[in-house]
């Protein structure tokens, strides 16, 4: 982990599909951090791993990696 890395943890399981996927995480002192993965980034990742499906399906399949 880099010196400037900000470790985040999942704040809530639900997420919103809007211009990709939007979800909430929390930093180490509990501040809420709004996160977004664009539709294009999800599609690029899906193409690399030969996965088909909706943005939601791709996000759910790789959520742990994305949140990391």
| Count, helices | 3
Q: What letter string, H or E per element, gives the SSE order?
A: EEEEHHH
The number of E-state strands comes to 4
- Give the low-pLDDT segments: none
Strand content of the residues, in percent?
15-25%
Mean pLDDT figure: 92
The portion of residues assigned to helices is 25-40%
Distance between the termini: 11 Å
What structural class do you assign from the helix and strand content? Answer: alpha+beta
Mind summarizing the main beta sheet?
4 strands, antiparallel
CA gyration radius, whole angstroms: 13 Å
- Backbone shape: globular
Summarize the structure.
This protein is an alpha+beta fold and 68 residues long. The protein contains three helices and four strands, in the order ββββααα.
